[in-house]
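Batch manifest line 332
LIGAND: 5-amino-5-deoxy-1-O-phosphono-D-mannitol
JOB: complex structure
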Amino acid sequence: SEQDETILRALQQNEEIVQGICDNMRNAAGTFFIGCGSSYNACLTGSYLFSKAAKLHVNPVLASEFENHEHFLTDKTLVFAVSQSGETADVLDAVNAAKRRGSRVVGIVNRDGSILARESDGQLFMNSGPEICVLSTKTYTSQVVLMEMLAYALAGKYEEGLKKIGSLYLDIYKLTSRSMREYLAKLAAILYDKRDIYLIGRGAQYATALEAALKIKEVSYIHAEAFAGGELKHGPLALIEEGVPCIVFVSSDNKSKILSNAEEIKSRGGYIIGVASEREEIFDYWIKVPEAEELNPIIQIIPMQVLAYQLAVYRGLDPDKPRNLAKSVTVT
Ligand code: M6R
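JOB STATUS: finished
ARTIFACT:
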């Protein structure tokens, strides 16, 4: 993994452009964040960050569902289109709709010269370098870095944000170290023949759970499904039986609530895998990550990407080329 370096590259932005985008956000009458797949999960993460750090409401919408919201668009609306490739047809359709209604479009893209980069009124670049694998990994973390950066800037803490995000470099490096990979390989050996894996989180960790589930299902073909912790009692608990694995994302701000959700699963026989900075009694398996508070969304997805990769390897699959999927989805 090169994500210790790519997060630093994502931080290399022109401050004036970032502050200008923040002004656009403060002044807009309605802000949408649209994307597909992992890029949408980054949008959802952003929506939690902006709400908490900057008290600013934005609407994260799947690009393929955006047509249902188009009637809200005016020349005062701001639309962020998030796409690694800058070629995703669902995203480009949404951008065209926004432009037809005179809304301002900001593209969060990896590739300069992509259609989205050309079509948007403002751009933020991920600077991740080419991503060959069908799975988004480094570009996902870069998208989340950009969301975090915007959240800090909106809260008037741009410089502090750059420092804090930049200081994750070493943590990310350690999370992809050999010993961590070996530890996750042991977990993959426990999980690789399971039919289902469930994942839970609250707040931004719910978005992380969705992204981790997407990675696992894309590459290992295991049914992986994420829930917001508080939703368990509204249906998903019926799925839990002896030995069903559940990955639980713990953050200092929602620790007691998510652990009590984990307890709901454990008491029905579930096997609990905690992604947390501290070992809890309830964990059957513990993936140790540093507590990075509002920056947890950057940190906690890394071991999940490694785990997904290892699940594919255990199942004899090629992690770079999942069946039925293309890197750029240029059809609607
Ligand atoms: O190029 P984009 O960011 O627009 O792609 C969006 C999705 O197709 C993409 O994130 C997809 O979900 C990945 N395969 C996830 O790993």
